[in-house]
# Entry
Amino acid sequence: MKQRNLFIAVLALLILAFAGGAFFYKKQQAEQAAQNAANNMAALVRADAQSFGNPNAPVHIVEFFDPACGTCREFYPLVKAMMTAHPDKIRLTMRYAPFHPGSEPVVKVLEAARKQDKFEQTLEALFAGQDRWVINHTSHVEMTGPILESTGMDMARLQNDANAPAVAAMIARDLADAKTMNVTMTPEYFVNGRPLPQFGFEELKKLVDDELAKAR
Amino acid sequence: MKPTAPTRIFAAWLVAAVAALGALFMSEVMGLAPCVLCWWQRIFMFPLVLILALGLFPFDPKVTRYALPLAVMGLGLAAFHVLLTLGIIPEALAPCRQGIPCKTIQIEWFGFVTIPLLSLFAFLIINGLLLAAHRSSSK
# Structure
């Protein structure tokens, strides 16, 4: 009986140490991330990045995303719904973080679509048809053809724009910025420069609500 | 007083439990992705936590019979992994095709303590304790 009590006590202690360690580690990481974000605002907000909503909105969400990322696809309409619920109060900036293998050419096409004013439409079409061109977490730009054509873009111009060195440079800069901001997974959100303490839609919504309340 | 077989198995369980929770902490809390070889070692470490605990209550001296093969396999894999990180075995032999290459050293404490080395120590201690428990209960 004594041995069993000792076993249970040790087991409880181990679990407690794990939970406590996890709690403190996460807290420390969150504080560090917030500090890091505050120190690197220049790497977070870039004037030439695609942006939605009122440019002078009191709440500015910066999202690092990959069009091949499933969670980015799930979150996109949720963030859009938040923006619709608070018209002119939220601005969303999209930063490229093509972490999936093969995603970089797709992001190039997306940036090229911007030059034809079709960024939003193209992104939504790519998200909607994601299962057709993302196979086993690998992007296949050669399979995005029908999706891109459905948006009615000038395909020859799209191809040409996608291959521009400026586009490649912009993606490289976004990736470097993602590294500076410690973005290792997509999507990653920063609300007025503050990172999510923990990933989740509830956490994002809370940060946005906090900032909305401050602006009121 | 010489430690009894149940004490040794309890100690082996404790090492396995700390190793398993430590591995989970590194992958789930710290977000370090386990490489393929790490997964193989986990396959042999995680069940030890359950099997050794079940062998303790009620005490079953035969538990060493079921736990030792797992511990020996884990020891072999951990040794292979350590040799790989030290560069003694060339990387071409490593079963790493995707994700994190097994040769990548993600943590290095005091300049030499890596995750595979911790795994090797854990499996060594577990093997020693289980062997000792096996001997003392089969006498």
